[in-house]
Design goal:
- The structure is a homodimer of 321-residue chains.
- In chain A, helix 3 runs antiparallel to helix 7, helix 6 packs antiparallel against helix 9 and helix 7 crosses helix 9.
- The first copy, chain A, is built from eleven helices and nine strands.
- Helix content of chain A is 43%, strand content 16%.
- With 321 residues, the first copy, chain A, is an alpha+beta fold.
- Chain A is globular and about 60 Å long.
- In chain A, the strands form three sheets. Chain A has a five-stranded antiparallel sheet with strand order 1-2-3-5-4, covered by helices on one side. Chain A has a two-stranded antiparallel sheet with strand order 6-9. In chain A, strands 7-8 form a two-stranded antiparallel ribbon.
- Chain A starts with 8 loop residues before the first helix and ends with a helix.
- The first copy, chain A, folds into two domains: 95 residues, Phosphorylase Kinase, domain 1 (2-Layer Sandwich); 206 residues, Aminoglycoside 3'-phosphotransferase, Chain: A, domain 2, CATH 3.90.1200.
- Chains A and B meet through helix 1 and strand 1 of A and helix 1 and strand 1 of B.
Chain lengths: 321, 321
């Protein structure tokens, strides 16, 4: 965690006085997420997660994130439910920082998803897209395709330092993505960070989705593209077509893809790999040497970019079947 | 946490296969302790803490620590109960490191203990000393009085860097402590790290003690001396006699101090402050710049040392009453 708020018992008491959750019974900081400080909180009313939002989450985005979680939970989607304070607000304040208390979800994330997990994850993603329909707020994807070139403008040296010649390769990728980026696909609320560590399973069954702090409005198929990158690559860098097929098949049990969405998957997957490559490259350079929490390796996504660049139809496994 | 083991779902499954605790339902790293990696683990059998022991805990000491916790729990002392594996062993292995699963304890530690908390803490400490009677294993206090001079031998420069002239002051303190260190006091199992963050309360009542990884055999009154330092100083550096009186009174509701023990409290408290000053000074220098987890400030204990040095009878509040 780049920043971590450590709350005193008095601060916790002051915060809980603004809720109807009874007295605290247990309280422990948990190592979950890198953007915020999270605590396991047990009160007389049950088990909860308390999140204190640190500077990487923009305060003005919180009503969207918390409102979305509440909406999804109210529409039977398994995600943490924000608890309202006595004033009805989902966002309270502790030590001058925004904070929220959400229900605790049982479940475990998987480190190396099987094809079975991918199928379940696909189902969970489609259910999210459907449950979010009608949510009345919107948020632009500030890490969407149009943001990549400006983001890369400050990272040419970092790319070269990572791998000589990489800067020109990325610049060419960005041109190609800008020219080919699909328009007019069905849009809606996307999770935009649907990685295995944000999905809980109970046994082999999808159980819940967490961490909606990148959620925004974008092409629904872009969420699938993020997930194909996050769930369907093997540790050796190869793309697992069986897993990808399972993920999309799972998705389509709840929401069928249009032919335009399916045709767009290669470029969307290439773009999704670019988005995570660029933010990892940025964080890589911005993390001080000796810091405890290592930033995620941008080379993992550089390798995924190379796969999408050289074999763009690989994710069109449906056409190869 | 200086070291943190992050377990995969496969590693967790392999570990749990060696226990009779059912399938995992939830698993989260928790920010508790700096010596080990700790996880909240929910299984079909209940809530547990999984601890993976990192290099600062000596593997050969683990049978003492875990055996003591089991003994205390079996003797109705509220502390985490180690769960035996299917082979009966309290210590299993995960990713080549020793690990233990203990019961989850509800309760909250207090950041700024009141006199009432101190009284309860004193009761909890005496109950620990009594419950440990008869425990058949022993462990030398490797941070006891005879260890301080050797430990300080490598820290003269660090002391001077902290505060010019401090090296000579500490050396004089060590001579004084060596000459005055009490012998022949009642000994037994001591916690040796009985700080507020290692004691849980439910409301204002003592609930449980955790973190027995400094426990050893030493003078029982030394544990009180550690606690007087840890619980009875105000944030402004002043010693709170009301809190100290409450702590000892709470202790004596379960175990009366002998006159020799009471008379030894000033030098024991001075010595306990020295022990924590020296280890904090050591850790201060050993932590790389830029590390996320800041080591604890040795100056806090330098100030406590100064109080014990200049007003050694301050903790003899009983005689001032």
């Amino acid at each position: 965690m780049a920043v971590y708020t450590d709350l005193s018992d008095e601060e916790l008491d002051l915060l809980l006085a603004r809720y109807d959750l009874g007295a605290p019974l247990a309280f422990k900081g948990i190592a979950e997420g890198v953007e915020n400080s999270n605590f396991l909180l047990e009160t007389e009313a049950g088990h909860f997660i308390l999140t204190v939002y640190e500077k990487r989450v923009r305060k003005e985005d919180l009503p969207f994130f918390l409102g979305l979680m509440r909406w999804l939970a109210d529409h039977d989607y398994p995600c943490a439910t924000p608890m309202p304070g006595l004033d009805g607000g989902l966002i309270q304040e502790v030590r001058g920082k925004p904070a929220a208390i959400v229900s605790f979800l049982p479940g475990l994330s998987v480190r190396r998803p099987s094809a079975r997990h991918c199928r379940e994850a696909g189902e969970g993603l489609a259910r999210l897209h459907l449950a979010a329909e009608g949510f009345p707020m919107a948020r632009t994807n500030d890490l969407g395709q149009t943001a990549w070139a400006p983001l890369f403008a400050g990272l040419h040296e970092a790319a070269e330092a990572l791998k000589p010649g990489l800067s020109a390769t990325i610049a060419a990728d960005l041109d190609r993505l800008a020219a080919a980026w699909p328009q007019g696909l069905p849009t809606g609320i996307v999770h935009a960070d649907y990685f295995p560590d944000n999905v809980f399973f109970q046994g082999e069954r999808f159980a819940a989705t967490i961490d909606f702090y990148f959620a925004c409005v974008d092409a629904l198929a872009y969420d699938i593209a993020v997930a194909l990158n996050a769930w369907c690559f093997e540790a050796d860098g190869s793309f697992n077509i069986t897993s990808a097929r399972a993920l999309v098949a799972g998705y389509e049990t709840h929401r069928a893809l249009s032919s335009a969405e399916r045709a767009a998957l290669p470029v969307l997957a290439h773009g999704a790999a670019m988005r995570f490559f660029l933010t990892r490259l940025h964080d890589w350079g911005a993390t001080p040497a000796g810091a405890l929490v290592k930033p995620k390796d941008p080379l993992e996504y550089e390798r995924k970019l190379a796969v999408h660049r050289s074999a763009p139809d690989l994710v069109l496994f449906g056409d190869q079947a």
